[in-house]
Amino acid sequence: MGTHMHQLATERNWAGNLAYQAAEVTYPTSVAELQELVANSPKVRALGSRHSFNDIADTPGTLVSLENLATDFHLDLEKMQVTVGAATRYGTLAAQLQQQELALHNLASLPHISIAGAVATGTHGSGDKNGNLATAVAALELVTADGSLIRLQRGDAEFAAAVVGLGALGIVTALTLDIQPTFNVAQHVFEQLPWTQVLQHFDAITAAGYSVSLFTDWSGETVAQAWVKRRPSADSEPWDHTKFYLGTPAVAAMHPLPGVDGSNCTEQLGVSGPWADRLAHFRMEFTPSKGEELQSEYLLPREHATEAIMALRGLSSVVTPLLFVSEIRTIAADQLWLSPSYERDSVALHFTWHRDQPAVEAVLPLIEEALAPFLARPHWGKLFHAGAAELAPLYPRFGDFIELADRMDAGGKFRNSFLERTVFNG
After folding, report:
1. Residues with Cβ < 8 Å from 197, sequence gap 6 or more?
2. pLDDT per residue over 34-88, tens digit each?
């Protein structure tokens, strides 16, 4: 088949906290080669940019990297859509679109992640009115268990199940995304917002820009930083950027982590520039950190935001010592079955942890217990404690997804220990 293979003795994820269990990793150079590989493999999973912090991408069988498949992008300006290879990274696509004066509606905080992997896990970006990254998907192509290549598009019966598909239905080879004309963003950072202001004015704060992030370690009486990304053309009402809910305007480029140089973050200080250089927090040309971190995240209905924030502040004594930083963001509701924002406008509570996995895993059940009254759904690609029994009631279409997966992958070719633990053993 001409596929390049090598043993996985030292293959790890980006954070370094997971060693893959697979016997081999393969790099097919054509979709036909991938189809043959999938058809002939008893167990197979796709490996993206390795930015998941759990074993969602692992398999005891064959791991497939799509890095060597064509990543050309095809514009359809009539439909305002772009089709890209699954392994394309958001930062790469963003730069290509910006050259053509085009844009995506949203970017995650890291531009380094692969599009297929981000979409499959419901990875999101932020903004009150912005759906997660997967909501831009208009169609996708995937190789199913028998090696067939199928295309699903909006309106198809299985489409809303397959987009945030966790890799359970097949290996995605290409995605078609909605695009729009380019737009500018100006990013303002404010320091030390009092929690009293944040809790009293939460909706107004998150509505102050196209995308707003709050950074905290949950201790003390203030939020360390607020990042407000505004579209100068769209946010036309007068805005006084010298004051923001008693926060102080930053006078130099900031980094979300205390004491870290802000130069590898996207441009701030209110300087307007293209969306591709502002919507992500970190610049594509810099590694955002050494990778020596773990991440968890929970999404809950935004009407519970202030109660959930107060619950986490109450856990500061156990959470804060393990944290680099936490981020609070908002995401609009969508209709994708396993999206953490399915049918509900959401607030996301994100944790960037020190790489002490036993300590982090010990605190996750406490966080999940505190957030359980608010129906919190964990991010599929990050560390969480809940299993299928806890997750199933949180997703109205969970049973339908399992039925579809049973039909499309009757032999469980794409299943792994992660999916058995979190989806199929409810």
Report:
1. 205, 245, 246, 247
2. 999 999 999 999 887 777 777 788 888 988 989 888 777 899 999 999 999 998 8
Cβ neighbours, 10 Å, residue 63:
22
DSSP at 114: B
Based on the number of CB atoms within 10 Å of its own CB, is 155 exposed (0-12), middle (13-18) or buried (19 or more)? exposed
79: burial class by Cβ within 10 Å (0-12, 13-18, 19+)?
Answer: exposed
CA 153/CA 3 separation, integer angstroms: 30
pTM to 2 decimals?
A: 0.93
Residues in the chain, total:
426
pLDDT score recorded for residue 10 = 57
CA separation for the pair 313, 220 (Å, rounded)? 9
What confidence score (pLDDT) does residue 283 get? Answer: 74
Cite the DSSP H helix spans in 88-194: 90-99, 115-120, 159-162
Q: Alpha-carbon distance 339 to 409, whole Å?
A: 20
Tokens of 390: 């806890």
Q: Please tell me whether residue 267 adopts helix, strand or coil conformation.
A: coil
**Cα–Cα distance, 295 to 352 (Å, whole number):** 5
Residue recorded with tokens 């804060």: 320
Q: Residue 72 and residue 92: Cα distance in Å, rounded? A: 11
CB atoms within 10 A of CB 234: 11
pLDDT band at 238 (very low <50, low <70, confident <90, very high): low
What are the two backbone dihedrals, phi and then psi, of residue 278, each rounded to the nearest 5 degrees?
Answer: -135, -35
CA angle 148, 152, 157 (to 5 degrees): 115
Domains of the chain by start residue, with CATH: 74-182 (3.30.465.10), 184-275+285-385 (3.30.70.2520)
Quick one: tokens of 356?
A: 């002490």
Distance CA 106, CA 109 (A): 10
